[in-house]
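re: that complex we talked abt at group meeting.

here r the seqs, copy pasted straight from the sheet so there may be weird spacing, ignore it
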Amino acid sequence: SSELTQDPAVSVALGQTVRITCQGDSLRSYYASWYQQKPGQAPVLVIYGKNNRPSGIPDRFSGSSSGNTASLTITGAQAEDEADYYCNSRDSSGNAWVFGGGTKLTVL
Amino acid sequence: QVQLQESGPGLVKPSETLSLTCAVSGYSISSGYYWGWIRQPPGKGLEWIGSIYHSGSTYYNPSLKSRVTISVDTSKNQFSLKLSSVTAADTAVYYCARWDMGVGLFDYWGQGTLVTVSS
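got the structure back, here u go
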């Protein structure tokens, strides 16, 4: 089992806002990064650090963190945002890295 | 543009050693960053395997550490993964990626290669 816990599935109506969460003790000390993965494709970095987006990632994606929970928010979800989302951060030892179990986002 | 490409056998027999190479183009490994391996069993989530710096410094997933060796060849601008004593549980798509350890992100990924462990 992963040291980072994500809800297996979340759904959102087209154009609405959705929050995907990632919980873990290590998140009290370290930021998470977030990855979007569509079927048959490699993951793509969407958020890192406090709330940073790589070039080319739409500004509807944002990140936040509070206590042991990191969150990825999509404001105004689009059909193309339907994908699996994974968080990644250090584990509780600080010397290894782990991914959350992933959240499957469905856009209705 | 940084590009990574995995290569290696797509089929490995149980108890043997899985060997993959990641060729990097558009960036010199010697210039910095860590370089890592991540895998994904069919229909399951991502698992970090380990990462290496151009100097040879490594970090490994504790659950795989006893079976994993990651090495780097700066002259060929590539790095490699060896996973020993494989079982069917090691069947997965294996990705290589560039890793910014300081910030904690994988910013460039290879397309991935499926390795099946079967006799």
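couple things i noticed - The mean pLDDT of chain A is 95. Chain A touches chain B at residues 2, 30-33, 35, 37, 42-45, 48-49, 54, 86, 88-90, 93, 95-102 (CB under 8 Å).
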